[in-house]
UniProtKB/TrEMBL annotation:
Protein name, as recorded: Ribonuclease H2 subunit B
PANTHER family membership: RIBONUCLEASE H2 SUBUNIT B
Keyword flag Nucleus: yes
Species, as recorded: Ceratodon purpureus
Keyword GTP-binding carried by entry: no
Region (Disordered): 223-267
Amino acid sequence: MAASEARVLITHCDEDTSAFQRHFLHLRNPVSGKQACYVVGCDGRLQELNWSKQRHTAWFIENSVCADGSLYLATPVDPLFVILPILEQLRMKKGDDMGKFRSLDDIVSVDGYPGYECLRPYLQRSLGIICESREVGEDMFYRLDDSKVLAWLLCKVAKLSEALKSSSGLFSGLHPNELNVYVIKLLGEYLKMDPWVSPICKHLGVDTDALKTARASFVPCMPAPSKTPESKGNKLNGPAAKKAALSKNSKLSGASPKITSFFSKPR
């Protein structure tokens, strides 16, 4: 039997990668609905798995070389983002009818995805954040509540905005509306435009058309340095001056792509 090939995984858990074999699971991507890979860390937190592979790369692991130079990065994600489209589908809302209440067994029973069962402990504690709940006997039943979802998402926007501003002066210099656009674009990786992103935009006064064209996949660039007087001896004219200006502008307008742009979702 051939030995398994080594892979490099960066995660919040300090255990050996062999201990993660039973923690890998497949869930639906909350936006596309396609199969996506997740991992439950040793602390019980759900983490989404991203994969990156550059050309001509390898890893040196102890005294051996791993020819596969790919990198797996597991980052924590709120399970409520993952379960949100399931709750939306299960309540079967129609017009003024707010829909049906569902048991936790119904919520985690997704055809072809037994991994949702791993979310049960967290959902038992957290479904009340975005759902209306009713107790019948010893059982609890849940129904998605739009007002609670909006309040939860606005809280996410506020916390993420504060985290970005405290992490870098680049974000603290943004106009509040520009920062809101950036944050909503980030959350849009886990939310569908309708029915979730549009209400956020309406509440915060963000134009949805501007949101679609905004370049929020890039970190804001540093402001241009103040202009310094040029000596007459170094002053350029004609084509040479135009070329120098274009070169300078291209350097100042450069922006750093966010880290997720380097990764894809493993299936």
